[in-house]
Fold these 3 entries.
Entry 1:
Amino acid sequence: MTQKKILYGQVVTPLRVTAAYLTVENGKITGISTTKPILDATTEFFDYGAQYIFPGFIDGHVHCFSNPDEGFAATSVGAAVGGVTTFVDMPYDRPKPINTAARFNAKKAQIKGQTIVDIALWGTIPKQDGVKEIPGLIAAGAAAFKMSTFETDPERFPKISDVDIYDALTKLRKTGIVPAFHSENNEMIVDLIARYQQAGATYPRAHMETRPIIVETTAVQELCEIAKWTGSKLHIVHVSAPETVDLIDAYRQQGVAVTCETCYQYLVLDIHDLEKMGPRAKMNPPLREPETVAGLWQRLIAGKIDYVTSDHVPWAASDKAKGQANIFEAPSGLPGIELVAPVLYDAGVAQGRLSPVQFSQLMATHVAQRFNFSQKGSIELGKDADFAILDPQAQFTITDAGLHTKTNAITPLAGRTLQGKVTATWVRGQRVYADDQVLAPFTYGDFVPGQGLKAGASNEG
């Protein structure tokens, strides 16, 4: 017989925060009550008192293998430390992207035995003749499809042509699977970087100057137009400017099913951090002016940004140092899967900008809805017992050495003290992390398959 577990704390439901008792059986939430249930010898009780019990956080934007030395195991530990119970790993792996069913299945097979949290996987398509790979990837379990209008690498991270984007969105529109995009204007960026390099303008701020806001808005507008005329869903990742959010919102008003995310770094860092720290603070899109950050917060509070992610890409100091003299030589990205929720809580809830319910929507509920993770994302009867326990009174200071990365990654947030700390993480009714200790074996985490309608994927287009 499976042991019944009861948790008490400040439970964050979809509507309110309530001092309540949660009953957990067979990995599911079977009871929510403001009255203490009867405890017997078979019941295990966890009293979290004044701590929040949030639904387990979901990070929809993670790169375990952009730096191939990182992998699932270390990332899953970082996830648990930050209260992330499910993450969705991006397809731009080194050396080969996940753009065929065979590669997807091989990656999926790595999950079992390599994670303490649950993992879903993005798929992508090849640069040439890639649309034909979509049905096989959906059948293999892809949760969503990631494509790009900017070319980082012609094979691993290619720019997809407008024609293939149109065909892909047409193919995906009846599947329930969401296409998402890295949205930057490739032609403008390539030309601007060439001009700056030729002029020897390789200082840190040049990274932002060669990726002005217009490279984001022009790419997003074209994608929204394609989504409008194909009738497809659309998701825009790592939005860095309020102008982009306003553009997306205008298309929503026209009936386009477009959503967007921003990342925690665009809410707590700005161009002055890039100027001060150089490669340590380099990411794509780049950090922007303080007034841009303020504009993002306004849209986030107003509910115009659907959720917040980490865009987790860990790089060591030795990797980042390659761009010390030339910012364009440094790899882009920073570690974040264990920081995204605590940073957003500190900057949002602790500072009075967001309510706990809004925070829960941004970190769990809206993410689950966009990926069709029907058993995750909120504390409701019958759903997975995924919880993030957060102590609002606890503080901790971010350090490079304290990050749970295999690659000894560095962060531009080192030295920053946060209000609010995850003290325990539950996945499907099991504590996987508590009191700074990993409690579950790496065989515990599981694969979360995509919920697309396979028949629609095969027949559409």
Entry 2:
Amino acid sequence: MQTINIWHKFDLYWRKITLTFFLLGGIILSGFSQDNYRPINKSGQDDQFLSYGFFLAAHTSSLRLKYSDAFMDPENPDFANIQSIQPVFSPGFSLGFLLKMRLHDQLTFTGTPKVGFYEFRTDVNYFQTDDFEQNSLGVRTESLITEMTMVEMPLLIKYKSMRFDNTRMFFVAGANPMFRTKSQDEADADQLVLKSKDVALELGMGFDFYFKFFKFSLEIRFSHGLSNIYKAETSDQNFAGAIDELRRKSITLYLNFQ
């Protein structure tokens, strides 16, 4: 048995998505900066106590895995055939609405109810056997796919910088309670079973761009699940006892319109 450090994979995804975010932001900012006499646009409803909008989002998500003590024990023969269990990042998307309450010119309370479509892939790597096809390393990989449709209600505090012409930078932080639309009885049929409810910590940043008729916001947000959502008793017993905890994590790129 051996453990595989997947944090370097998370770091690669983080770098790629962050680079994409700043490239898009730079392209939009360069368009704004080409005209030094651009009029100040009044779009975005920033002066109203309540304002509304919608968004589209693309995310990549995975699971944070903690092995059980039984799996880590080299003297335990129960999981001697398992080399490692490795969550893999998978793409998805979500869409929803923006509900904003103005607390101050630079401070906003924001609710973003949404529906998210997730796919969690987990690779279970078994040591070589004669009955199955294996790769050049003598390991056979079984990929487990868990699909989830989640109803989410992120509640966020948004802190905005002073407005500079038609642009503004902001930071967001808050909590995201969520629940799955599929019943637990249906989910128990999966090989890797996850619980239906979770709460995640959300942190992000972005830019507001004020156009003539609407405000567009480009935002990147990181989400870390706080609950252990693993249900060992109904997962595949070939590997169920090797896992102690599973927690969600995701990186999301939001396109907001107001």
Entry 3:
Amino acid sequence: MHDPNFPPDLSIQPSVSSSSPSKDILAFNQDVDIKQYGIAGRIWEAAYTLAVYITPPPLCPTDSTVSKSGSSPVLEFDPPSSLFYDHIRSTTVVEVGSGTGYAGIHVARQLGSFYRRENTHATDTSVILTDLENVVPLLEKGIQEHRHLTGASIRLEAHALEWGNPVHADQLARRLKALRKNVTHVLCSDLVYFPHLYPPLLKTLLTLTSPPFCDPSFGPEVIIGYRVRSLTKEIPFWQVFGTWFSFAPVLTRHLGTEEAKTAWGRFGTANDTHVFVASRRPESYMWSVPTENSQLMNGFGPSPPRLDDTFESLLLLGIDTDD
């Protein structure tokens, strides 16, 4: 079977970020990892944007102009990252298509830092990185190299989860059952790119947001970092995703001046990236997930079948769409 991390004519270079709060702390050798793992060995741009969003308030660095006092402006988000709500103590994050593990390891580090800052002894927090079976060694290497940054209160693991693979899904479900954990958050970063992978990706997201992974009455929040690369190819994914999930873009504003306090804008504009927060539509738990990929991509599930236009409506309302 062809490895999707090595498509024909692959030519990619390591990425850099000036904005991620973990850019000087998390160390990944992308040159080496790209040679060995292809697409999975690169940190893709949306991961850096996600890292800024998934940072405890009010310590949210940004690459914007520093204030006159010399400190970075503070970002306020709408919605704020639910990972840092005070009342949530049992947190289980599953990252899908983790690649290097940058985003998931960042989450583990930020949760550990938040618990220490709040003097909260949360020992029931898990961050699970997943990818193809042949990428798991890369994830395990990243975990080993950054274990000292996450703290003992965070359980950080790597598991195989090929999209649409029921065996891998069952293995992960049994692991979570052994830990007595329900998934509270699903993390995705730059996963919408190859159209032939949309059906298995969608099926995996539906699996992780359904029993036995969660309680439908309190389903997981899905946090998606996304960068537009080929809008016409990517819209079909969002049409089906919106059939099963309600979602909205994260908004942000800089605090520090009276004018800035009222100026909300879409987060990620400066980097041509987007962050969406999503959750399962309650009625979707009554539907059967189509086994045929063609039916899934044509809106089957609800009766009659339908495709959602949330993403296209957001485009019309002002999301930047340069291809």
